[in-house]
Amino acid sequence: MLNDVKKLSPEVQTSHLEAFHSTLNQFHPKMTAYSYTGTYCRHALAIVHFNENIKRDAKKTKDGKVYYSIHYPKYKNGDELVRTVPVPPSYNYVKDLRNMLFKDTKASMKLKILEFLKNVPAPLSSQFSNKVDRLTALDNYHKRQEMTVQLYPSLSEQDQLQLTASGPEPTNTPKTRCCTKCKKPMKGHKRGQC
C-alpha cells in the first residue's frame, strides 16, 4: 500500500485523458475506417467539442439547488456513489465554425485545402513495391485453387488405423491355473493326486 501511495501523482491525473478518449471514440469509432482527411477532421471536431464542454457547471433546480445522482455500484458493496449532474453539453462551436466557413472566400478555402493536402501522407498500400498486376494475381489464385492438398484422415479412420497398428486387442480372460507337477488344470484337481 505504501508503494502505491508513493507512485500517486500529485499533479497529473488521467481522468480527463480517458474522458477525451471516450469523446474521440464517439466522433471517430474504431470499427469504421476513414481516410486521412476524414480522420483529421473528426479528431479536430472531437478536440473542439471536448475543450468546450470539459468543465460544465452543475445542473440546478429553479430554487438554485444542485442536482445529484446517487448510485450503488457492486464494487462498493452497498456504499453509495454521489455525483453532481452536469448541464447538457453545448454545441456553440458549430455556430463559430459555420461563421468562419461562410466568411472565407472560395479562393482562400482552396489555398487552405491545398496547404492541408501537402501534408497528407501517401496511402499505406503505396509502400509495397512488389505488387503484381491483376492478371498475374488471378493466375496465381487459380493455380492455388487447382492444387490438391493431402488432408488428414477423418477421426473414425484415424481410430481404425490406430487399432490396426497396435495389433490384436488384449483379452481380459485370466490364464487358467495348472498343477506344477502334472500340468493339468487345477479345476477339479485334488491335492495329493499327482
Helix content: 40-55%
* Sheet of most strands: 2 strands, antiparallel
Instruction: List how many beta strands DSSP finds.
Output: 2
Number of helices: 7
First and last CA, distance = 87 Å
What string gives the helices and strands in order? HHHEEHHHH
Strand order of the largest sheet: 1-2
Helix/strand/pairing class, anyone?
mainly alpha
Mean pLDDT: 87
pLDDT below 50 for ≥5 consecutive residues: which ranges? none
Give the overall shape, derived from the CA principal axes: elongated
| Rg, Å, rounded | 40 Å
Share of β-strand residues: under 5%
Structure description:
This protein has 194 residues and is mainly α. The chain is 45% helix and 4% strand. Among the domains are: 15-55 and 91-122, no CATH class; 56-88, no CATH class. It has a two-stranded antiparallel ribbon with strand order 1-2. It is elongated, with a radius of gyration of 40 Å. It starts with a helix and ends in a 28-residue tail after the last helix.
List the helices and strands and how they pair.
Elements: H1 2-7, H2 15-27, H3 36-53, E1 68-71, E2 81-84, H4 92-103, H5 106-118, H6 134-146, H7 155-166
Antiparallel strand pairs: 1-2
